[in-house]
Design goal:
The complex is a heterodimer. Chain A has helices at about 10-15, 20, 40-50, 60-70, 85-110, 135, 140-150, 160-170, 170-175, 180-190, 200-205, 215-230, 240-265, 270-290, 300-310, 320-325, 325-335, 355-360, 380-385, 410-430, 450-460, 465-470, 505-510, 520-525, 545-550, 555-560, 600-605, and strands spanning about 340-345, 390-395, 475, 490, 535-540, 570-575, 580-590, 615. Chain A is mainly alpha-helical. Chain A has a two-stranded antiparallel ribbon with strand order 1-2. Chain A has a two-stranded antiparallel ribbon with strand order 3-4. Chain A has a two-stranded antiparallel ribbon with strand order 5-8. In chain A, a hairpin with a 5-residue loop joins β6 and β7 (about 580-590). In chain A, α5 (about 85-110) packs across α10, α12 crosses α20 (about 410-430) and α13 (about 240-265) packs antiparallel against α14. The longest helix of chain A is centred in the middle third of the chain and has 29 residues, at about 240-265. Chain A is elongated and about 100 Å long. Chain B is about 30% helix and about 20% strand. Chain B is built from 10 helices and 15 strands. In chain B, the strands form 3 sheets. In chain B, strands 2, 3, 4, 5, 8, 9, 10, 12, 13, 14 and 15 form an 11-stranded mixed β-sheet that branches. The chains are: A mainly alpha, B alpha/beta. The interface of A and B includes residues 283 and 564 of A.
Chain lengths: ~625, ~350
């Protein structure tokens, strides 16, 4: 039934829309079969034909200006031209502000996921606020790790807030908050549709509900089943994880690179004023968004390339990621079916103008005559703002009869297959050799990382640890720990060693794959009988070591060895050089009982390409089997 | 009448002119930018690069001052007395100077571990410079460990900031490649923040070094270099001498309040340190190390870099020739001063022992 408010008090104010006088206003109760044809198109052609002397704006900037003017011109409302409710227009604008704000907040936290130090800081270094907040509020992460570990790690209960929000308002996270969603919203606007159509039928067709939107639910089921079996591999597809990973490890370092090289080029001109300008700019950028040095990440082009592909996909399917793949969106979609706020449609009034579909984000069938899919709706409110016939209304506790909440028409067989696929993840990946029988010797996990199987239970590949690492030591593994370990953190000492007093990776880890350890636990404290955490053991390649094989003094490794007493000890010897002259050198040795595997020695070894000292994972505290010494291993 | 198929003369001339101009321009460009090929690795010949920040000596009362204290030392008083013995800070810092202080902030260690310069020493010297009218006092170093961590956990960032000094952390763009033309150090990235100054004050910490045995003043200039410093250790003594040749500081103030005796230069264990409550101020960095090494029972003649520094004319290991002054501060802050009397014919180590013995008699 129609509950159209009769007086429409705001009509007097907003109602003087050009649409009303442009087109003969049809009665709102009249249901037209199709949109009123716009008279502009033929009119423009006629004018152009009648006035051939008038030059079309030829220059590119002229056309751009024209386009901008057209964009900001108040558009005429078609159909009956009923304006949207003021509150909805206001909320739509609030949604835009919220999107920009949350994207900004996300980027701020991401850029701040690093330690810079400060004059106010003391000897204990911690992040001053939860830079990983978006992940803590992520119910997909919480659910997945709950299924794999049967616990909710520390602040992951924050995600209940988002569950509550979704139960009340539906998937507003996707439309109002999600930084990845906002990026897709923006890129779907930037590349509207193939073949240059910015509006109209192609866009409407793209925004109809499609069967492929169910893929994300099948993916979600597969990931949850994999989690039950013991693998948090679904983190690969979590949108927040992707944002941190791709932006933090690929986009920001690339920006750093471009800026640095541009400003270095400016400084290389040897013009004093330009150099000063370059320095000042660089100082300001380094103090705000850039890093003081270039960070390099292992095979990061894969992350950047995938981000590019996913963003480009918006050209064919608007918000491809959100509609088709996002497992967080699917989680929220399942919850949104019970939302308290929803849509009412007055099907009788719909003229099938399809304006609601032009900017629909979720492809949730807002148009009249079909069932609305609340589980797909992002709550962007574009449909209600666009509707000229007063068909669409978002309401508190809506009358469900008018929309008859659609069920996900999930195929039972496909669901079964997805469950089986999730169950197959573990046997498929773990019968490969890396985890149980053939350790990859360079798989160094961050300090505080739990045992490898537990690690796979927890690690969601969010890359927070890699972003926060002050020495650029942590990197996304490609295939180092098998295909299952894709983009899990691996420490590459040659790029950066593990800073002895640093415990930040554990602090930002949202799931406890890296535990929140203290400095005492990391370095060991004999006074309190705390043993240091070992992540591996260093070994010498004596054929490449200067004092061992080239009669040349060195021991930079010993100098950098941070343990006390030092794990690297030196043997004082006089060795002959090729002419028989004796050279006094100090030959380094490793004491495996003291070595913590931090990799400082490997990092600073002057044998540049393949260092003469290197760390392998053997002896790591977290493993009971990957051991060398009898006294440190308790085999179970 | 058929039109003449040939282009008009004017156009021919214009086109010919353009073609000629193009060829001429390209030839000039090719001539200017002609690549003769080959490896462009010029040798290290030529005069050594030197950054000399020394002030013209207007004859202070002394060029070498040592201050000892007992118990919990009043570092401010010690620094003031040490510089006072040299003639006061005004001898070194003029109004409007940009003064760069170069403490050792190399390691992620706390002050108790004595791997970095004591923050109180840095703060006191910075205060004196500001009082002398310095326009800017910059505190910086190119650390070995993560700089943010070294600056913060050493306590130097907080203390220097509180007294009004400017703390600058090393960043990639603040290094620029220079030809040092040293014996082993030629082309290296040099930390510009350190050398872009009117006055540079060296503020090392005295400590054990496993390879160079003892290091403080001269080795502190490792912090002027960026790049991969790990190669320097293959010839550490010449590297130190090269760097000390490049950097000639206005003043050197050595922090020996707590001295790392073993496991240097990084240490990490308070048990490896000993409280010595000594501050040393001098204009001669070679003399500073010649005296300082005796604190950890080393002898100047064992330190090759000191011999090289002396041979290069950077200073003297015979600090006794610098009109030394030694002061002992008692616990109540009162000052007893006495000039050191060097007996004729005594060896340097004997003199040093006398000083150490004298330290306990306050």
């Amino acid at each position: 039934m129609s509950d159209l408010p009769k007086p429409l008090p705001w009509l007097g104010v907003v109602g003087v829309v050009p649409a009303l006088d442009a087109a003969p206003a049809p009665s709102p109760v009249l249901s037209l079969p199709a949109a009123v044809p716009t008279p502009q198109a033929p009119a423009v052609t006629m004018t152009a034909a009648a006035l051939p002397a008038v030059k079309a704006p030829g220059a590119w900037w002229g056309r751009a200006l024209e386009g901008l003017r057209a964009r900001f011109k108040p558009r005429k409302r078609t159909g009956s031209g009923l304006p949207a409710r003021a509150i909805i227009v206001w909320l739509r604008n609030a949604r835009r502000v919220s999107q920009v704000g949350f994207l900004g907040l996300f980027l701020f936290l991401l850029v701040r996921t690093e330690f810079r130090g400060g004059f106010a800081g003391g000897a204990t270094v911690r992040m001053p606020y939860p830079v990983e907040g978006f992940l803590l509020a992520d119910p997909f992460v919480a659910l997945m790790t709950f299924l794999s570990t049967h616990t909710v790690y520390r602040s992951l209960w924050w995600s209940l807030g988002l569950v509550a929000l979704t139960l009340v308002f539906g998937r507003v996270f996707c439309g109002w908050i999600c930084p990845f969603g906002t990026l897709h919203h923006f890129f779907a606007w930037l590349f509207p549709n193939p073949h240059g159509a910015t509006t109209g039928s192609r866009r409407v067709r793209a925004n109809h509900t499609h069967a492929y939107q169910n893929v994300k639910y099948y993916l979600l089921f597969a990931f949850l089943v994999a989690a039950v079996c013991g693998s948090a591999i679904g983190g690969l597809f979590d949108p927040i994880c992707i944002c941190v990973r791709a932006i933090g490890l690929a986009v920001l370092p690339a920006m750093n690179y471009v800026t640095a090289h541009t400003l270095d080029g400016v400084a290389a001109t040897n013009v004093r004023a330009l150099q000063v300008g370059s320095d000042v700019t660089r100082d300001a950028l380094v103090a705000s968004v850039l890093q003081p040095r270039q960070y390099f990440f292992h095979q990061t082009w894969v992350l950047g390339g995938l981000l590019f592909v996913v963003l480009l996909a918006n050209r064919w399917i608007p918000r491809f990621w959100c509609r088709v793949l996002c497992p967080l969106g699917a989680t929220l979609g399942l919850l949104a079916r019970h939302a308290l706020v929803g849509m009412e449609k007055d099907h009788a009034k719909c003229t099938d103008c399809n304006l609601c579909l032009v900017d629909c984000q979720g492809a949730d069938s807002p148009q009249g005559g079909v069932k609305w899919r609340q589980d797909e709706c992002h709550g962007c409110l574009n449909c209600e703002v666009a509707c000229p016939e007063d068909v669409i209304k978002f309401r508190w506790l809506p009358n469900r009869r008018s929309t008859s909440l659609a069920q996900q028409d999930l195929d039972r067989r496909k669901t079964l297959v997805s469950v089986l696929a999730g169950a197959a993840v573990l046997p498929a990946t773990r019968t490969s050799d890396t985890l149980d029988s053939n350790y990859y010797d360079r798989l160094l996990r961050p300090p505080g990382a739990v045992e490898e199987r537990d690690f796979m239970d927890r690690c969601i590949r969010c890359a927070e640890c890699m972003k926060v690492c002050p020495n650029n030591a942590l990197h996304p593994a490609l295939l180092e720990s098998g295909i299952e370990g894709l983009w899990t953190p691996v420490l590459i000492p040659r790029i950066g060693y593990c800073e002895p007093s640093c415990v930040l990776c554990g602090q930002v880890c949202p799931t406890g794959a890296i535990q929140k350890i203290t400095e005492d636990q990391k370095l060991g404290n004999p006074a309190r009988h705390v043993e240091a955490i070992k992540i591996g053991t260093a070994f010498y390649d004596q054929g490449r070591c200067l004092p061992w094989s080239m009669a040349t003094p060195c021991i930079v490794c010993e100098e950098f060895c941070p343990t006390s007493p030092k794990a690297i000890w030196v043997e004082e010897v006089d060795v002959p050089d090729r002419h028989g002259a004796m050279v006094h050198v100090q030959r380094p040795h490793v004491d495996p009982r003291l070595c913590i595997g931090c990799g400082a020695c490997e990092k600073v070894c002057p044998v540049q390409d393949r260092p003469a000292v290197y760390v392998t994972s053997v002896g790591e505290s977290r493993s009971r089997t990957n051991v060398i010494l009898l006294e440190t291993g308790t085999y179970t | 009448m058929a039109a003449d198929p040939r282009p008009p003369r004017r156009e021919v001339l214009v086109r010919a002119g353009k073609a000629l101009g193009l060829v001429a321009g390209a030839s000039v460009l090719a001539k200017l930018r002609l690549d003769h090929g080959g490896w462009r690795v010029p040798g290290a010949e030529g005069t050594r690069e030197v950054r000399d920040y020394r002030t013209a000596d207007h004859g202070g009362p002394s060029d070498f001052a040592v201050v000892h204290a007992q118990g919990v030392p009043d570092v401010g008083a010690m620094v003031r007395e040490a510089l006072g013995a040299l003639g006061g800070i005004a001898r070194f810092v003029s109004r409007g100077d940009v003064v760069v202080l170069k403490p050792n902030i190399g390691w992620d260690r706390t002050p108790m571990q004595a791997a970095n310069t004591n923050p109180e020493v840095v703060a006191q010297v910075a205060t004196l410079c500001l009082q002398a009218g310095a326009r800017r006092v910059v505190v910086t170093d190119a650390s070995c460990n993560d700089p943010g961590r070294c600056f913060q956990r050493s306590g130097i960032w907080a203390r220097a900031h509180r007294v009004g000094a400017e703390v600058i952390l090393p960043a990639e763009h603040r290094f620029r490649t220079m030809r040092l033309r040293g014996e082993v150090l030629d082309e290296w990235p040099v930390y510009r923040t350190l050398i872009e100054a009117d006055k540079v004050i060296n503020l090392p910490v005295a400590k054990h070094h496993n390879l160079a045995k003892y290091t403080a003043a001269m080795k502190n200039w490792y912090g002027t270099l960026g790049g991969r410093r790990n190669r320097l250790h293959q010839n550490i003594d010449v590297s130190i001498a090269d760097l000390a040749t490049f950097m000639r500081p206005t003043l050197t103030v050595v922090d020996a309040l707590r001295v790392l005796l073993r496991n240097g230069p990084q240490g990490g264990n308070v048990d490896d340190t000993r409280r010595m409550n000594t501050i040393l101020a001098t204009v001669d960095q070679v003399a500073a190390d010649a005296y300082g090494c005796t604190l950890i029972d080393q002898r100047p003649e064992n330190l090759a870099y000191l011999r090289m520094g002396e041979a290069r004319g950077l200073g003297t290991t015979r600090w006794q020739s610098l009109r030394p002054r030694e002061l002992a501060l008692d616990m109540h802050g009162g000052v007893q001063r006495y000039a050191l009397v060097v007996p004729e014919g005594s060896t340097e180590v004997e003199v040093a022992r006398r000083i150490h013995a004298g330290r306990v008699v306050v």
